[in-house]
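Task card 7
Instruction: Convert sequence to structure tokens.
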Amino acid sequence: MTESISPRPPGPGTAGGEPISGAQYAIGAGPYRAVVTEAGAGLRELTHEGRPLVLSHGADEPVPAALGQLLIPWPNRVDRGRYAYGGRLHQLDLSEPKNDCAIHGLVRTSSWGAAEHGPDRVRLTHRLLGAPGYPYRLDLEADYSLDAREGLTVRLSVLNTGTRTAPYGHGAHPYLTVDEPIDDCTVTVTAGRWLPVDGRRIPTGPAEDVTGTPYDLRQGRGLGDQAIDIAFTGLRRDAAGRAWVRLSGGGRTAALWADESHPWLQVYTADHVPGDRRRRGLAAEPMTCPPNAFATGFDVIHLEPGVGWAASWGIMAG
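Output:
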């Protein structure tokens, strides 16, 4: 016998239910506005003077191409989903079947609860419990705040509440936009090295000098039709310790910064983003470790029980 379940009453302003990305947390300060979602604590919208700084998606739309999502407890890919840690072999679900990889962590669609929500700030939390392939327990926090001059600051923090040391890395996946095709834009990345990858986007060797390559974007260069989907390191930082990615065009600039806890920046020209978002934004992804870090061990953070860690990044209008 099948049990009948009554539908949940519609939420305020909806017709028949809540959006699939859950609660929508709006914040604002001066000319900046943002919306953060319950699903994954993702950045769904960010505007300056009413114009977008990131590619957005609908509240009731499945998130395409990881727009605005947080990538925890690893960013990018793990080759075949396999890695060894703590004397054990682990197998992650292959969340990117076409490349036979596990991609972008475990929390992108998880429900995060609001611990604090004010006019210019929202702080969300999530408890990541152990699962096949990642038998560790972490308490996570994502703190989004807006400032009228400095724009958006995002602080990600983690505490190992489990019984064993856990491998950890994180990233974020906003797509900068100036509401123009990026082919007509100038891109600046303050990075001195780039990481070669194979056709499955898995690193093939150590990072190389960008000098004399199409990936030398340190002085800013018109993008044209160049396709990029690689990780950069050797980051040059300003006096505040921030590395930058800037997208400029149409008289506007969208800029992402990452603090010193992020030695890597993935840049992706949105070539395979579906529909009219294709090459309308530039993914600028602060990362604590490179692709396939769980398999190689490179720049993996080793979180002992009871130990926490935090890092920050942000976006502002230029």
